[in-house]
Amino acid sequence: MADQTNPRWSIKLLADSNHSTTTIEKFVARYRCGLPALPAPATDEWDWQLRARCRTVDPAIFFPPARGPERTRSEREAKAICAGCPVLHTCRRYAVQAKEPHGIWGGLSARERALLELHASVRHPRDNQQKPSRESACHHEPPDSG
Predict the structure, then answer these.
(1) What are the backbone angles phi and psi of residue 67, rounded to the nearest 5°?
(2) Residue in 136, 80, 139, 75 with CA at minimum distance from that of residue 111
(3) pLDDT over 80 (residue 83)
(4) DSSP characters for 43-110?
């Protein structure tokens, strides 16, 4: 059995099976150096969640049942927690951009977020229109000199 305290024990196991240790070490080194490094953690993108008031609350409050008085009570409770949250606007912006289909995010229900997005698209219709491409903007007729 291989010595498992030795960090190279797996290489030794392979070496015992018809290959020299040097050959296997070269093989491992060749392919290990070609591996890309892992990207740094993207915590900056999610750090706001660590400051959220909902972090220590039962998440069920933010995902109320489909209908009835329990839904109304749960939504009201969730929105009260959101109201004093230091990351309310960041949370709301995330939910709208991600098109979160369920739950209370940033003090808004899924329906309220959809209405907010609809209202923004009606208020700023030019933002929804396709902008002219660079080529079409550059290719114009010269002024008529006649």
Answers:
(1) -155, 175
(2) 75
(3) yes
(4) GGGTGGGGG-GGGGS-GGGGS--SSSHHHHHHHHHHHHHHHT-TTHHHHHHHHHHHT--SS-BTTB-H
58 versus 31: the higher-pLDDT residue is 58
Other CB atoms within 10 A of residue 12 CB: 13
Q: Where are the domains of the chain?
A: 9-34, 52-127
pLDDT exceeds 60 at position 146: no
pTM exceeds 0.85: no
Question: Which class for 4: exposed (0-12), middle (13-18), buried (19 or more C-beta within 10 A)?
Answer: exposed
pLDDT: which is higher, 28 or 99: 99
- Alpha-carbon distance of 80 to 11, in angstroms, equals 59
Shortest CA distance to 78 belongs to which of 92, 60, 91? 60
| Cα distances (angstroms) measured from residue 27 to each of 23, 30, 58, 133 | 6, 5, 51, 50
